[in-house]
Structures are given as C-alpha cells and as structure tokens.
Fold each of these.
Amino acid sequence: MAFMKKYLPPILVFFLAYYYYSANEEFRPEMLQGKKVIVTGASKGIGEQMAYHLAKMGAHVVVTARSKETLKKVVSHCLELGAASAHYIAGSMENVTFAEQFVAQAGKLMGGLDMLILNHITNTSMNLFSGDIHLVRRSMEVNFLSYVVLSVAALPMLKQSNGSIVVVSSKADTAMKAVSGILNIDASPKEECALEIIKGGALRQEEVYYDNSVWTDLLLGNPGRKILEFLSLRSYSLDKFINN
Ligand SMILES: *[C@@H]1O[C@H](CO)[C@@H](O)[C@H](O)[C@H]1NC(C)=O
Ligand SMILES: *[C@@H]1O[C@H](CO)[C@@H](O)[C@H](O)[C@H]1NC(C)=O
Ligand SMILES: *[C@@H]1O[C@H](CO)[C@@H](O)[C@H](O)[C@H]1NC(C)=O
C-alpha cells in the first residue's frame, strides 16, 4: 500500500503528461516549409524518400552519401518536387573530418539548420562475426561516432533555430534486400516510413515506431523503462548537473 501511495501518483502524472504532450499537436506539412534540413544516407531507401517528402513540403535540403552520381539524381528530383533548395555533398562518414566539414558546408548552403536527420549506416553484409575487428571499428565509426560528430558540429546552428536531431534505425527496403533470405519478414514501405519519421521530427516526438504490427509500438515503447527513467531522474539534481 505504501508503495502504491508513493509511486502511483507520479506514474499517473507521467502517463497523463505523456498523453498530453504526444497528442498536443497535429502534423501539418507546412511545418517543414522553408525549414533547413540535412539528410544523411540519402542516396537510397528511407533517406532518399525523406528527401523527397521534405522537397514536396517546400523545405531546403542538403543530402549526403558516398555516391555522387545517385545524389545528383536525388537532388534534381527534389527540385522537381518543389524543394526550396536542394544540394548534395558526397563523402564517407568513416572520415571524421568530412563529417565535421559537411555540416558546416551544409549550414552555409542553407543559411542555418533546423533539422539534422541521421540515417546512414555502414554497408555491412550479414555474416557471422569472424573476429574481424576492422569491421567492428568501421561499424562503430560510421554507425555511432559519426552521429556524435555530426550532432556536435550541428549543435550551435540547432540551438539558434530551436532545431531538432532525428536518429533513424530501420530495416526497410534496401536493408531488407541485403538480408533477404536470412530474415523472413516483409519490408515496411519506405515511403510511409520516411513520412512517419519526418512527422515525428516535426512534432518533436521522443520516439516513433513504424511497423505493420501493433506489438512493435507496445514492446519497443517499453513503458517499464519509461517509468523507471522518470523515477530515477527524480533523484538527480539536474540543475546542479548542468551548471557544474
Ligand atoms: C576526409 O575528408 C576531408 C574533407 O572532406 C578530405 O580533405 C580528406 O581527403 C578525406 N580523407 C580521406 C582519407 O578520404
Ligand atoms: C563497403 O564499402 C567499403 C568501402 O567502400 C568496401 O571496401 C567494402 O567492400 C564494402 N562492403 C560490403 C559488404 O559491401
Ligand atoms: C526557441 O525556444 C525558446 C524557448 O521555448 C524561445 O524563447 C525562443 O524564442 C525560441 N527561438 C526561436 C528562434 O524560435
């Protein structure tokens, strides 16, 4: 009973707050009009589709990936679809210098930044791990470290614009082709995934799950973790932490 008294009210408050904030606003495509957006991993799959959605909504986009040729096509299609502006900068996210300079260049091209969409991953093939540390290092560098580098480089511009960072993790389309025959599930349609990610970014949703199963939301949403996070954060003095 004591437990209920102590924990039930904050839990209820948490859920009410969660519902309030998540249902507060509805997405409108105009939210992206004139916004300055970077999309990484934009030569194919969800990244490419996000660039097209953003273009239709009238955003400025800078796309990146390794292949110049495909990026050129993505950019010209973005312009056809009505992008406020569209540019590409090709390079490898294995290269930290490139990652840093890319953000600065993209910011210059658009005159600022409202949204950084991190969507690239390294081109791992689906094999059993054979002890190749180079592959581990490359995965960490491309799939993790470059995300940090890009975010840090973008932070000053995002602070100015009250912008947002969107991190994508997916197994749609292109990724599904890479694992076809190994993973027996259907790919989610990349166009729809892409739109849901942009909506989530525009509404500043903490997490967005896209899948054709209702279970994904429930299981990955992990209410237990959220409650624990909420409770444990109550014992931190965040003000002190930030001002330290
Ligand atoms: C890394 O990127 C920088 C900036 O784009 C470039 O000058 C340099 O040649 C790149 N390094 C490699 C190894 O590709
Ligand atoms: C991924 O790209 C690297 C660098 O371009 C290349 O050396 C490697 O063979 C590629 N790996 C796969 C699995 O395609
Ligand atoms: C950013 O958000 C803060 C706090 O919500 C607000 O005071 C400020 O005017 C906003 N700035 C811009 C550029 O929207």
Note: Residues 200 and 207 are 7 Å apart (CA to CA).
Amino acid sequence: MEGKLIWWSPSPSWLMLSTLCLLLCAAQLQTSSATVAAAGTVPIPAGNVVPSAGVKLTSGKDEAMIDNGIIQLTLTNPGGFVRALKYQGVENVLETHEPDDFGGYFDVSWDHPGGEGKTEQVVGTKFTVITETEDQVELSFSSSWAASPKDLVPLNVDKRFIVQKGVSGFYWYVIVERLKGWPDVNMDQHRMVFRPKITMFKYMAVSDEIQKMMPAYKDRETGEKLAYPEAVLLTTAIEPEFKDQVDDKYQYSMEIKDHKLKGWISDDPKIGFWVISPSEEYIAGGPNKPELTCHCGPICLAMFTSVHYSGLDMVTEYRNGEPWKKVFGPVMVYLNSIVPSNDHAALWQDAKAQMEKEVQNWPYNFVASADYLPAAKRGSVSGQLLVDDKVLSPTPKEACTAYVGLALPGTTEVAFQFDVKGYQFWTQTDPKGNEVKLGPVTYKAPRNGPTLWEIGIPDRSAAEFFVPDPDPKFVNKFFVDKPNDKYRQYGLWLRYPELYPKSDLVFDIGVSNYSKDWFFAHVLRYV
Ligand SMILES: *[C@@H]1O[C@H](CO)[C@@H](O)[C@H](O)[C@H]1NC(C)=O
C-alpha cells in the first residue's frame, strides 16, 4: 500500500499519531491476504455475463425505478426509501413491511439536549433527477428542515442514489447539513440500514473468519432476554443447532479498518447481498473503533457515527448555532451470484474483489454533488515516518505498518477517536519501507530513560491479556474454537467478580504474567 494521504487539515503534527500503531496490525493483514490467496474458485458475477444495457429511469406518482438490465432499484418518491431491489429474477431481495420497515433507509438517532432520544427514519420531501444518461442515473430525495414540522431532526438531508451501466448494484450517499443559528441538538447515530429478505438470506459474512449460518429473528422473540435487550438466549430455535446459544449483535462488531465488506448470502437462489464501504473518511472514530456490521434479522448496516463502545463522548453535539455539513458515503450495495451454482466462499471472494476495486476507485469521479470532492479537488500528503527512541535504537527507525491519519485538530493527540463532525483520512505505512515523497517525519518518543516495566503491548488491542472462558450457559458455539475471538462471548464481565470476589486483582511486577493475571477489560463490579 502506498503511503499516500489525502490532505484535509493543515496539521502535520497530527502525523505523530501514527506511532501509536503496531506491528500486530501487520501480522493481521498478512493473515487476511494469505486467506485470499488460498481460496480456490473464481466466481463469475452474473453482472459480467449479462450484456450491459443502458440505464433507464421510470418515475411514477409515488416511486422512481432505475433499471440497468442487471438490477432494478425501486425507491419511494419523494421519501427516498429503498422499496425493492430486483436481481436474477427475484422481484425483491429486500424485506419490506411498509410503512415501518423499508428494505433500505437512512436514520438519525437524536434529540434536543435533555431529551430522551429518538430514532428518525429521514423522509425525503423533494425528488430531483440529478443525472440521467445511458451510462448513469443519479437521483436526489431531499428534505429541508425549515419547511418541516419542528419535531424532526434539525438537518437538511439529501439522499442520493446512483445506478451505473454494467454495475451489479447501486451507490448511495447522504449529505446532511445544519445551518448557522439552528437549534441545539445531540445526535448519537447516523447510519444506513438494509433488510435482506428473511426467507432467503440465512448465511452472514463479516470477515474472512466470521461467516456463519444465523438463527432466525423469530428465535430471538421466543428466547430469554439477557442483561440488555440485544443479547438473547435462544431457548427455542427453528434450527436445533442454535438452541441454548446466545445471540447478540455486538459479537459481530469489527474495527472500522476492517469494515469495508459485509453481507448475507441466500442459498436458494444462490445470491450474495453486500454492503461495501470503500473508505473510512466519513466514519467517525478512527481505524480501531469497533462498529456493528450485520446481525440477526437479517440486517446489514453502514454505520457513520455512533456511541457504540464509547458512550457519550461520541454524541455529535451542536450548541450556539454551530453549522455543520458532512457527506456520508457513497456506500455500494453489491449483488452477486455464481454461474454455475457454487459455495459461500466463492461469493465472498467475488464480493471481496469488488470491494478492492471500489477502494482502488476511491475517491469516486462519478458523484454529482459538489459537496463530495473528487480526486482532482483533493490534495495529498506523503512522507516517511520515523520513530526516534534512543533507548531502542541509536538512530531513528522506520515506523513499519503504522497507521497514519489526518483529522480535525483536537486538544489532545487522541481527539480523532471522539471526533464525529469532521472527516478522517487514514493509510498504513508500507511494510517494505518503499521510497516516499515528502521527506521524513520523525516521531520523538517521550523518554526520560529506559522503561522500568510495562504490562502488555501498547497497541490498542487487549488480545494479549487474560480472556476468561464464557459461562457454559451463555455461549455462542461459533466462537468456541477461535481463541482470537473469545473476547466476543457474552457475559465475560461477570467472570471478573467470580475470579476476584473480594477485591480487585493485584499485579506484581516481575512476578505476574499479563497473559494470565491481567483481565482483558476494565469491567464494572456487579453489586
Ligand atoms: C505467561 O503465560 C502464558 C500463558 O500461560 C505463557 O505462554 C507464557 O510463557 C508466560 N510468560 C512468562 C514470561 O512466563
């Protein structure tokens, strides 16, 4: 990967953050590319065997339909909800229970300060055809806060959909804006939600390793709620393999750096439904923030901002009439099928190849809104990152595989972790130490002398610490033989007071071993 950076904020000192990164990341990346190479079958996406037709738009009284001969996307007009997605002769690969649950929607969780919080599916009020050619159709479904009832989120929202000739899927981005002087507001989540059809999509894939058949949503309804509503013990299950297992959407979270591809597979007919996020620039929290991916429903998400795993620090707060504008996406919804019929791995590998193509194409040059900057309107920063730590080496050393990012300058070096308003541009330094353009940037490690002691590895991961076995009553069998994923099991926090019933753990430097004697999470004591 080339060390090319998109220049956003003139804050080169921010490059220092990169040194927080770890060789561990390199090991992980190598693992995942090895997996790609090992996979065998090369699938033929149906999009490549159907001759490409031009893109056709039909708009009616309450819907707009875009057809490129591969997919047909139907949107409510002017609401801008995904009503249907036709593919491979299936009229709708999405679930639809109108008016409450469309197959695809954008929502905002928000309230005025002091309010209890509510989630609003943003409804468009104005339909505009932005582009209509043989090659591409772009549609806008917008709403203006000033012209809306005052109990709606104080944002102007523009939902944009793009269908291109020869592309097996569609692109979707959303522009949100609040103008100067608008009322105080807290927003704790912005996301797109997709609901693949329940009767078809039963196999979920969120990474090379985490792919599995999933329980039915009904199993959750008949199960026993655990400590929070998302975690359910499946006391009855349509498929016996899920009986007495825990289902919890948080078990399938991935760090944003690993969030680019996720989706669901239908076995009959064999179809993959994928959500591709080609960039992290519009997702809040930086590369190591975990976010939800897909979960029992079936549901597939494109998360943009959220308080997941951080809490109130990541509420998007606006006070004193502060203005804001941000473009979320474009995200791609990609559909594939295999000719002849093949296995899950082939669909996943094909979707992964598509994801890599989208990443290569970023920033896109086909997005009509002036708020989305194409490559020609962006600058770049490149350089070589060195770490000067005299204790480890007399001369500065290359910071191999460090994550380097640009974000809004904050008051601390880790402000990017909590920034929800700006964009973030991340890259990883080349593990081979290739030539770089701008010259060296040296991070001087803060040192008063040699390290006397440390517990664990300062790499933003708790993987090296002690992760207890789950309570046998609350297991998700899928993770049992996966040591790296053990931390995902439900209720591990309750093991801490069992291990240390009277007082907190004591770690003796030089005697204790962090793999056994340091609990992987700082948990609350249940009283
Ligand atoms: C610490 O414990 C782990 C796990 O039991 C073990 O593999 C490792 O060798 C131990 N380290 C030391 C320094 O004893």
Note: The chain is about 10% helix and 30% strand.
